[in-house]
Amino acid sequence: MNPHNNKAIAKIKMGSVNDYEDCLKAMETEKEAWMNTPMPKRGEIVRLIGEAVRAKKDALGSLISLEMGKIKIEGDGEV
Length: 79
Prior knowledge:
The chain is mainly alpha-helical and about 80 residues long. Helices cover about 70% and strands about 0% of the residues. The protein has helices at about 15-35, 40-55, 55-70, 70-79. The model has no long low-confidence stretch (mean pLDDT about 90).
């Protein structure tokens, strides 16, 4: 909901307790794989994630400002 005018921004699907448990199990499996990944490779993955976020900064900043009722500059700052 947009806090400014209480209009719906989007609809989301709620997860169940089973969805949550499945997510935790998958996370534990991936955590092991991540810990076994060499540090330079992990660093490269984190760098690529940062680039992807920066490439979408304007859209993400707009979403944050809309969702949280903030001005655009604040939304961009959070990204």
